[in-house]
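> example.struct
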């Protein structure tokens, strides 16, 4: 059975599956740095790859330079908004508790998300440089005055514990960029510890780029995710950079995704590890390890949010009980559509467009 057959005719069931997502939110300015600015008779030419851009910058060492940025869009950003918009667009019942505007007031940038929105802080600000082979994100530090959990409780009128406890899947994202994220994740874990384990439900995690955090901080958050596994089926999703960083710093320096996933599962007691790269994706669990080739896009319309779209589709696939192979195939197909078309598809659109092998 393919993922298409597994999901066909289940729209009402999908709509009953509840996701609660926390806690970030950014306003992104999407730009492309120009190698050749626009000139009479000569169209502007952006840097094609990060390597090209890096080589140019290295050549300007001990000098100075000016780089023109072609602004393509100002849009919602951050792991929570992208993942939630993707999951909500697929038909899931999504509640977001994030940095979406002045407390109680959602910024219009996020208002069109097909989700229930609670905001406890202003969004962060970031600039995203897009290239054919990836992106560079530049963001400001995000702070919340006072106690962040108290702000969450105030924004939700004390409903946050029930929203996390009752959800079919909890998604906690962007630990790396939020100094207060670890404390919030611990609070959610404490909420779950107050009732009987419900292992048929899921707790899904995306750390974001871990390179800015210390080894001890990284070890601590992975142990925290292992604690979630007592109460929910814990799923950690990593991109290639994050997986390699964890392996190099904490699990012995493995370089192959299947080996990295197995090492993290064994050391930290996390039920499921997903590693997704531009060339392959891996899902390791007690059931074994499944690997699939990714649908590589040589000239992406957009790469910002691609991993979050993979994760949003992974969340749906998990709560709908797809097989491990179909979970990867569905997430790959959804991310491929987004990257190649520059927008999120609905489930019927994806069924019509995708070739899941």
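> example.seq
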């Amino acid at each position: 059975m393919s993922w298409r057959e597994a999901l066909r005719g289940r729209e009402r069931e999908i709509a009953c599956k509840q996701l609660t997502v926390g806690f970030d939110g950014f306003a992104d300015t999407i730009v492309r740095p120009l190698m050749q600015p626009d000139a009479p008779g000569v169209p502007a030419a952006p840097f094609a790859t990060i390597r090209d851009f890096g080589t140019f910058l290295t050549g300007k060492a001990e000098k100075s330079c000016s780089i023109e940025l072609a602004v393509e869009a100002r849009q919602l950003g951050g792991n929570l908004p992208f993942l939630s918009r993707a999951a909500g667009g697929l038909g899931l019942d999504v509640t977001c508790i994030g940095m979406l505007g002045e407390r109680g007031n959602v910024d219009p940038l996020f208002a069109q998300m097909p989700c229930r929105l609670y905001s406890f802080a202003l969004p962060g600000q970031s600039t995203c440089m897009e290239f054919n082979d990836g992106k560079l994100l530049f963001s400001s530090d995000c702070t919340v005055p006072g106690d962040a959990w108290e702000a969450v409780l105030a924004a939700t009128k004390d409903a946050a514990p029930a929203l996390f406890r009752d959800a079919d899947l909890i998604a906690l994202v962007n630990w790396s960029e939020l100094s207060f994220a670890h404390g919030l994740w611990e609070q959610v874990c404490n909420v779950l510890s107050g009732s009987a384990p419900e292992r048929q439900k899921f707790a899904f995690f995306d750390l974001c780029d871990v390179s800015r955090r210390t080894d001890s901080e990284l070890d601590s958050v992975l142990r925290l995710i292992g604690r979630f596994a007592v109460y929910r089926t814990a799923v950690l999703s990593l991109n290639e950079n994050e997986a390699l960083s964890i392996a190099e710093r904490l699990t012995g320096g493995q370089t192959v995704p299947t080996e990295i996933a197995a090492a993290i599962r064994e050391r930290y007691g996390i039920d499921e590890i997903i590693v997704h790269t531009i060339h392959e994706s891996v899902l390791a669990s007690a059931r074994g390890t499944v690997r699939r080739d990714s649908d590589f896009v040589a000239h992406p319309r957009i790469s910002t949010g691609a991993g979050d779209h993979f994760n949003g589709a992974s969340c749906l696939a998990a709560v709908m009980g797809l097989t491990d192979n179909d979970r990867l195939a569905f997430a790959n197909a959804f991310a491929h559509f987004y990257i190649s078309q520059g927008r999120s598809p609905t489930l019927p659109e994806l069924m019509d467009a995708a070739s899941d092998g």
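> remarks
The chain has a mean pLDDT of 93.
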